Amino acid sequence: MSRILIVDDERDMRWILSNILRTENYEISEAESGEQALNVIKKNTPELVLLDKMIPGKMDGIEVLKQVKNHDPSISVIMLTAIGDSKSIVKAVKMGAFDYIIKPFDDEELLITVSRALEQRSLSLEVKELRERLENRESLESVMGSSETIRHIHKQIEKVAETDFTVLLQGESGTGKEVVARAIHQLSPRRDRPFIAVDCGAIPDTLVESELFGYEKGAFTGADARKEGQFELANTGTIFLDEIGNLPYPVQKKMLRLIQERKVQHLGGKKLINVDVRIIAASNENLSAQIDQGAFRNDLYYRLNEFMITLPKLRERKDDIPFLADKFIKETSNELKKAVKGFSHEAMKKLMSYHWKGNIRELKNVIRRAALLCEDKVGIEHLIFDHEKIPSYFCFQDYVDPQNIRPLKEVNKQIVGMVEKEAISNALVFTKGNKNRASRILEIDYKTLLTKIKNYGINTMELMQ
What would the pLDDT profile of 192-244 be if each residue is shown by its tens digit? Predict the structure, then answer.
């Protein structure tokens, strides 16, 4: 039922209007002053307001109209006025009133005007929603490409975004799982609510439960104050659980209960806390295989897999490579304040034929390195793939630019930095963001790893996409 608010200081007029409108099954609320009307609107926003222009008090009808439109421009307003007040009516219409009705009015005229106002509001909202969807689709294409494979992903995103289905994203590291998760959130009714991304592989096993579900003061050593968990922070919005397969088995049971009951319980707490949150999970591993190995709960898998989107490998959608390469070269050129004019034919041919085991993330790294090394156009000599170690610009050339000659100490530092950053990034990808495991593989202590991650500007969440 459409909700209609009647604002008039005369009780008899409110009674007449209410009875006429209730014959069409409208839900009616009433207010006798502007202040009272605004309080009603804040508590339960109506689709339509029937507003008497001559209400007494601090605000007349024109001022109330202004306040209503400031609160929510989509609310339709029909002014009620006496004969001979055309100047005020023109002003009201210019301020956004849909129409006006002159007292005394005909019942049929009232119902027709109300119906037209509600229909126009519905059409306006539909147009707005379609426009937002188109903008979001264009935004998604600008990030992921527009090949036939990706268009199919777009359609899946649009269908599931409208719902509250729990979504499971499957795909190799670097295929853009967080990009898709954010797109689902932006296309959903929760778009204006929080989006919280959690990398389950980057949280030490001992801290996962407290990080996700929160804790009370004194729950464990170091718990000096009460802390909300990530699910509470995402309340009314969306939580993205990346690399869900890394969750410790005992935590999976608590996660299952949360999905079933939509309640969390702090560590050290007794109270159950309601959470209204949309869950999107992602994994770069086959969770079915983990179930067979006893590492992942079968019942949790089916709770998460209300709708699955499988993201294709970059080597399976090579039509998108020229678009993505051009996008990354423009972004890096702006960052470096260079005017890179694109790619040579040989360079693009090499990009198209490469196997791209690291998917979009590897492509982005290759393009960024190329933008750094080239002068005005990316040639094949500027493409350094992950198996190559020495930048090609250190090879001998017929012409040597004196500005490129630098002290060996500086050159060595740059080479070491590039190789170290690559090694740390690869270790984090291999361990799915688990910094403890990465530090052991790299044979450096945990604190040193954190320092290097910070110094090299390595974004762990971006690596896990």
Answer: 899 999 999 888 888 899 999 999 988 888 888 899 999 999 999 999 999 99
Question: Which domain-ending residue is among 312, 337, 372?
Answer: 312
**Residues 342 and 448 occupy one common structural domain:** yes
Range of the domain at 454: 315-463
Contact criterion met (CB below 8 Å) for 320 and 313:
no
Query: Which amino acid is it at 291?
Result: I
Q: What is the pTM of this model?
A: 0.58
Under a CB-based contact definition with an 8 Å cutoff, are residues 147 and 320 in contact?
yes
Residue 430 and residue 458 in one domain: yes
Kindly state whether residue 132 falls inside one of the protein's structural domains. Answer: no
